[in-house]
Design a protein that fits this description.
By secondary structure, the chain is an alpha+beta fold. It has two domains: about 280 residues, Distorted Sandwich (Beta-galactosidase, Chain A, domain 5); about 240 residues, no CATH class. The protein has 17 helices and 22 strands. The strands form four sheets. Strands 7-9-10-11-20-17-16-13-14 form a nine-stranded antiparallel beta sheet, covered by helices on one side. A six-stranded antiparallel beta sheet has the order 6-5-12-19-18-15. Strand 18 and strand 19 form a beta hairpin. Helix 9 runs antiparallel to helix 12, helix 13 runs antiparallel to helix 14 and helix 13 packs parallel to helix 15. The two termini are about 55 Å apart. The relative contact order is 0.07. The model has no long low-confidence stretch (mean pLDDT about 80).
Length: about 625
């Protein structure tokens, strides 16, 4: 260390020592700081002792005597806020059940509302009664103003106009009236009606002598909401097919996107609003229309046992002076295409069969084939066999396209030696010239390089249609085949002690594994049959990665769909083997060679423009090379 560095270090040390001496608190400051610390500790101890004292007193304190009111006293107390409805604020909750072959509906006297709705012919995935909702979490509240006082029916007690606790509508139509008294010969009735073999619960709001109370009130508000219960095994997939649907008055059916939380304002007339799950729905419809509505969905965690919270704030138009009845209807229905079409009002559009063209394939072909095989061949309940016949049907229709694709691949394959020769003539930096020479060979031989791709693209609509059909088809729900207990859900043969990310889940589905393996085999055979050395870089690797990706995508999907693709791959393999044996590649090569000897065809305008653009691009690149 030199002399200058030593002097610098000594100065820095002196400055630090001087700063510490200068900033050292005096004795008085030190004592004041210690006093503040002691005061804070004393205050904390006092707070702790006070809290312990209060806790002790609360534990040993005798509860205050409750104030007991008679019903008459409570009614008098509420008369100022509820007016004529004060007498309905006191009561005891009672239940009356009305049912037919399909539905069991429980009506509560509190709020006069549907307490629970059960579909008697169905059960949950774990074999429990299928209850769409119950009043523990649901809400059905009619709000309006009477004598300028806000009234909420969910807090009031209705009087059943029926003495029995159960009503059977299996043989004849029955009705139940729940009456909300408003004093002085005034009341509001909720009238429920049910017919045999029906999924429709009639619901009519009748107003008796309410014109003076309502005055010029132009509307009522109705809050309807409940969380959708998980009915199927897979929470994720059921949630993705559950949302709110609605139909505008004399207009189209719309919905909130099922894969997101969202809300929509429906500012114009609405005919019906439906809380739709994967296989079941609850719908509230107006015989005329609702003035407007606001709907929202909120996703719920799997641990809750629910999928989504569906909420609808509905505005019901009324004529306060002349209105006597508001006819509405509930529908508690399975999402079965034929059943919903029978109910009418375009309710069947709640079943998402894909985009319009995809939906057309499903409704015109797939659904009808299912029902035809069920009826004519008596395959009802044998849906594994129906899937096999459905696969054979579509593969037979697409056989000409498959044959054309295979022949196109054979033409490309026999030309491979000539393509390899072209590749040897051009260096790597002349990729454009190489491509032009290859395309010229294809044109001269009469080969369309897209001939193998176009038939595959034409098959995509059917592939997409079935992709949307199987998860939405209630026909497959809880139908077993081989080891699969439910073709609408995954077929788990092994439950893992951990969850694999990427959508794979915590189980292994055997049909999905078989589908992926068969897909890999057919891909390998197809690639070997069509390999001309002209594939895009990475395309071959992508084709082999597809079965692995499908394994992750489909492991938690409907096993019926995986089974369909597995059978389809087997049939494809069989078709490829038979077509290969029927094709003579020597004859194909001879025909292509003869085509090359014929006079060259006139170039199309498009091809001339393409070649002109290529030449211009090459001319632009030449000066750059000279400059370098």
């Amino acid at each position: 260390m030199d002399k200058k560095s030593l002097i610098g270090l000594l100065l820095i040390g002196a400055l630090l020592i001087g700063y510490s001496i200068w900033t050292k608190p005096s004795e008085e400051e030190r004592l004041a700081q210690q006093h503040r610390i002691d005061s804070i500790q004393t205050a904390r101890i006092a707070e702790q002792l006070e809290a312990e004292r209060l806790s002790y007193e609360l534990e040993n304190m005798k509860p205050a005597e409750p104030i007991v009111q008679t019903p008459e006293e409570k009614i008098d107390q509420l008369a100022g806020t509820l007016g004529g409805f004060a007498s309905s604020a006191v009561g005891e909750e009672k239940f009356i059940t009305i049912e037919n072959q399909h539905l069991r509906i429980k009506i509560s006297s509190k709020g006069g509302q549907v307490y629970s709705a059960e579909l008697k012919e169905y059960s949950t995935w774990d074999k429990k009664p299928l209850v769409l909702f119950d009043n523990e979490d649901s809400k059905f509240n009619l709000k309006f103003y009477a004598d300028k006082k806000p009234i909420f029916t969910e807090d009031l007690f209705f009087v059943p106009q029926y003495s029995e606790e159960s009503i059977d509508a299996s043989s004849t139509a029955k009705s139940l009236t729940m009456r909300l008294n408003a004093g002085e010969n005034r009341w509001i009735d909720f009238v429920y009606s049910l017919e045999p073999e029906s999924f429709q619960l009639g619901f009519e709001i009748k107003l008796n002598n309410m014109n003076e109370i309502f005055g010029n009130t132009p509307y009522m508000d109705l809050d309807w909401s409940y969380p959708l219960k998980q009915q199927e095994r897979g929470h994720k997939w059921e949630s993705q097919y559950s949302t709110i649907y609605y139909k505008y008055f004399n207009d189209e059916v719309g919905h909130i996107g099922a894969r997101k939380e969202d809300g929509e304002d429906l500012p114009t007339k609405v005919e019906w609003i439906g809380f739709k799950q994967q296989f079941f729905s609850s719908v509230l419809r107006a015989d005329e229309f609702f003035s407007s509505a606001k709907i929202t969905t909120t996703n719920l965690e799997e641990e809750t046992g629910y999928l989504k919270l569906c909420q609808a704030a509905i505005t019901i138009p009324i004529d306060g002076k002349n209105q006597e009845s508001i006819p509405l209807s509930f529908y508690f229905v399975p999402n079965h295409v034929k059943s919903l079409k029978k109910e009418g009002h375009e309710l069947h559009k709640m079943i998402d069969m894909g985009w319009p063209f995809i939906s057309w394939i499903n409704t015109l072909f797939v659904v009808n084939i299912f029902h035809y095989l069920e009826g004519v061949f008596n395959f009802k309940g044998k849906y594994g066999l129906i899937i096999i016949f459905l696969t054979i049907f579509f593969k037979t229709i697409l056989l000409p396209l498959s044959y054309k694709s295979f022949v196109s691949g054979a033409k490309m394959r026999v030309l491979k030696p000539q393509i390899d020769e072209i590749g040897q003539k051009f260096s790597k930096d002349k990729a454009m010239e190489k491509q032009q020479a290859t395309m010229a060979l294809y044109k001269k031989a009469g080969v369309n390089p897209m001939g193998g791709c176009l038939p595959m693209l034409l098959q995509m609509p059917i592939w997409l249609a079935l992709f949307r059909f199987f998860p939405a088809s209630i026909e497959l729900r809880q139908q077993s085949f081989l080891w699969a207990t439910d073709l609408s859900s995954y077929d788990s043969i092994l439950t893992l002690p951990f969850t694999i990310p990427g959508g794979f889940g915590d189980h292994i589905s055997l049909f999905t594994v078989l589908m992926a393996v068969s897909m890999a085999l057919t891909t390998k055979i197809n690639m070997s049959q069509t390999d001309t050395g002209q594939q895009m870089p990475g395309m071959k690797m992508m084709m082999y990665l597809m079965p692995v990706m499908m394994l992750f995508w489909f492991n938690s999907y409907a096993s019926g769909l995986s089974f369909y693709y597995f059978v389809s791959n087997l049939i494809t393999f069989l078709q490829m083997t038979l077509i290969k044996r029927s094709i003579n590649e020597d004859k194909i090569l001879a025909k292509l060679t003869l085509n090359q000897k014929k006079a060259p065809k006139k170039k199309s305008n498009f091809q001339e423009r393409l070649e002109k653009m290529s030449r211009e691009r090459q001319q632009l690149n030449q000066p750059k090379k000279k400059k370098k």
